[in-house]
Amino acid sequence: MAATIAWLAVLAAAAAVEAASHVLGARWAGISSVVRHLSSRPVGRAALLALWAFVGLHVFARYTLPG
């Protein structure tokens, strides 16, 4: 239960950063801008793939495997 609340807090923080970037304009980079910048280089693509695998393992697989 605590892990679910923590992941929801991470998602809420990400949504708040994205909303702040739209409201404040060029002062803050949004998540979409950061992902676009990271995916323009091979090392960034590898980092995004690792992040995707980490989140997939800890959010989806952990909660669907029989315990």
- Portion of residues in beta strands equals under 5%
Q: How many extended strands?
A: 0
- Distance linking N and C termini: 14 Å
Q: How many domains?
A: 1
Can you count the helices? 3
| Largest β sheet strand count, sense and barrel closure | none
Radius of gyration equals 15 Å
Q: How does the overall form come out from the CA principal axes?
A: flat
Give the uncertain stretches in residue-range form.
none
List the helices and strands in order.
HHH
**What average pLDDT do the residues reach?**
84
Helix content: over 70%
Helix/strand-derived class?
mainly alpha
Q: Can you tell me about this structure?
A:
- With 67 residues, the chain is mostly helical.
- It has one domain.
- The protein is 81% helix and 0% strand.
- It is flat and about 45 Å long.
